[in-house]
Automatic annotation (TrEMBL):
GO terms for cellular component: chitin-based extracellular matrix. It comes from the Eukaryota. Keywords: Cuticle, Signal. This is Uncharacterized protein. Pfam families: Chitin_bind_4. Residues 1-18 form the signal peptide. InterPro entries: CHIT_BIND_RR_consensus, Cuticle_Struct_Prot, Insect_cuticle. GO terms for molecular function: structural constituent of chitin-based larval cuticle. It comes from Rhynchophorus ferrugineus.
Length: 137
């Protein structure tokens, strides 16, 4: 289970980076790893990290929550083609892979009229029609 989750995250990082190479990288250029750590403990917990000379970095730590459930937290960063720094933090557990990053799209704000309606409904539960019997008139 640990190996599969670690492999999934590593492949995700490689996939994301492979789609968005920094401008300074030339075909055939060798990018050196300047820092790398990895440790797997007997209890199933682990951590790994690496950093490359062109600013790519990733780290993850994980532990068994119970014999059947693993949880991992981590992050990775790189520079997009347009020079934008990309940073992603994530958690992976029974709820799936849950990434967060400032560059991800966000939903539009709730319109003011709908927000006022929701606030009114929450403040006046006694007026909720769902608890009243249907009347045919």
């Amino acid at each position: 289970m640990i190996k599969e989750l670690t492999l999934f995250i590593a492949l995700l990082c490689v996939s994301v980076y492979g789609q968005r190479r920094p401008i300074q990288v030339q075909p055939g250029q060798i990018i050196r790893i300047i820092k790398q750590e990895s440790d797997i403990s007997p209890d199933g917990s682990y951590h790994w990290s690496y950093e490359t000379e062109n600013g790519i970095a990733a780290q993850e730590q994980g532990q068994l929550k119970n014999p059947d459930t693993m949880e991992a937290q981590g992050s990775f960063q790189y520079t997009a083609d347009d020079g934008t720094p990309i940073q992603v933090q994530y958690i992976a557990n029974e709820g799936g892979f849950q990434p967060q990053g400032a560059h991800f799209p966000t939903p539009p704000p709730i319109p003011a009229a709908i927000l006022r309606s929701l606030e009114y409904n929450a403040a006046h539960p006694e007026e909720d029609d769902s608890n009243r019997p249907n009347r045919i008139g």
